[in-house]
Amino acid sequence: MCKKTVDRYRPDFPALIAKYPFIRVVDWKNTKDWSKPVFSDTLSCLDCIPNGWQQPWFLETMLECLDAAIKSDGMDPEKIYMTDAKEKYGTLRMDFSTPWVEGKAFSDMCYLFEELAGYFCCKCGKPHVAITKGWICPFCRDCWDDINGPFIEAELRNPTITCYHKDHKPISRVIDLKPFYDRIVERLNASLKED
User: What beta strand segments (E) does the chain contain?
Assistant: First the structure.
């Protein structure tokens, strides 16, 4: 689908899991008692997301922000684990098993990066993308195939998240993607200068 081939970047998941234990997954084969799951030290569902979103400028920025949100909410990262991560409709989807009381900062940060992924190329991780029709995916100009039609850059839009208060009243708020988008782009530019 893409004009240029991008080598598959493989994050060091054992090192990332040691630093961010909340991305680990249950070792289904070795777990006998589900009240005490056994976790993998080497596997994460993040291995299943597109190559572009595994690039260090995106993945490591996301993990740092999720870690800060977990700490802000006062949750124990050792009691959180990942149950799924994938691309769907051109954005990232992540599911976590969390303590019974989930924090607002962590939920918002997960949602923010799920949406933000749609503004970075799923093939190479660069910004300034257009969205394909049919199988919806974001691609940068370098990875765009003209079979998808003209390249029209997607405009960064801040999503509105709605949740419900304990009295069942909806609470809506806008999540500002721009500072996080800029942070990832800045990290990408720094890595390009190093090469």
Answer: 81-88, 91-97, 129-131, 138-140, 160-164, 170-174
